[in-house]
Amino acid sequence: MNGDFLKRAQSRFESLEGSLNSLDAAIGDGDHGSTILKGLRAAAASPEDAAKAFRVAAGGASGALFGQIIAALDAFDKGDMELGPALARAAGRVTQLGQAKAGDKTMLDALMPASLAGNEPAAAAHAARAGAEATRDMPAKRGRAKYVEGAGVGHLDPGAVSVAELLEEFAKPSGA
């Protein structure tokens, strides 16, 4: 995988760690930013098998679910798949593994629109951002957020925000 992208993503998530943890603290356990950053550090150190390195380092559900996105971006980066189908495959795996669907206030609310946006990384990133913003008004139907008063309405889903941030970094040209 493109090591430049992974290093940029690591740097971006180092600056986002606190804000993502705060988003997660409002509706979850407060460690989402730290978990994603741990996975990205490992992926950046192992660009040849970035998805596996991410899964192992991040661990738990986030490792397995976000590892699917890293694998999709790797498949696109290597020319093995177009971006839309690669992200659709990742969304399918996330749906299966997480037993969630669009509208449940999860990372899928950013990933699914990105998969339908075509094959241009910038279009996927834009769709993911819009999807992440839409989670603010959704009641959570999965995860810890569904037990929060009001099911987390008024809060962004940190997983959806991370998907948008990751795809925005991916859309930047190398060396940016």
TrEMBL record:
It comes from the Bacteria. Keywords: Kinase, Transferase. SMART domains: Dak2 (SM01120). One of its GO terms (cellular component) is cytosol. It holds the Pfam family Dak2. GO terms for molecular function: glycerone kinase activity. InterPro entries: DhaL_dom (IPR004007), DhaL_dom_sf (IPR036117), Dihydroxyacetone_Kinase (IPR050861). Residues 1-172 form the DhaL domain. GO terms for biological process: glycerol catabolic process. This is DAK2 domain-containing protein. It comes from Hoeflea prorocentri.
